Amino acid sequence: MQQDCIFCRIVNREIPTKIIYEDEYVIAFPDINPAAPVHVLVIPKRHIDNITEVDGKDAPLLGHIMTVIPRIAAEVGIADEGFRTVVNTKDNGGQTVHHLHFHLLGGRFMEWPPG
Ligand code: 5GP
Ligand code: ZN
Fold first, then answer.
1. Which domain, by its residues, includes 65?
2. Measured distance CA(13)–CA(29) in Å, rounded
3. Mean pLDDT over all residues of the chain?
4. Is 102 helix (H, G, I), strand (E, B) or coil?
5. Which band of pLDDT confidence, cut at 50, 70 and 90, is reported for residue 2?
6. What CATH number is given to the structural domain containing 68?
7. Whose CA is nearest to atom 20 of ligand 1?
8. Among 42, 50, 55, 111, which one is most buried in terms of CB atoms within 10 A?
9. What is the DSSP letter of 80?
């Protein structure tokens, strides 16, 4: 838990947020400023600044996240038509919240390349 981290505060229920999915390791909730009709954030409960901070011992956690993502996508109704999973990292990646998170974006066609 990092005191000044908004996502740690969501994990700790200090900021009331609609929880879409939760288990021992992961929590998912709607993005406050959706970039698509469906925009969900999937985060590890444990604070990790960004994907550059992980190492081999995080492999089970990351594998777990990758298996819950399609389940959450199905739950919010974007699995059949498809969706995009995005991990913004540091400044050039456009990361604004420095707690590792996976964006799930769906409900419309996603252009490529991103802006
Ligand atoms: P990033 O730009 O770091 O990849 O994504 C951070 C995301 O977190 C943004 O899409 C932003 O809208 C979302 N966000 C920031 N603060 C909050 C918050 O307090 N609650 C929720 N639900 N989403 C937030
Ligand atoms: Zn955090």
1. 6-106
2. 12
3. 97
4. strand
5. confident
6. 3.30.428.10
7. 32
8. 42
9. T
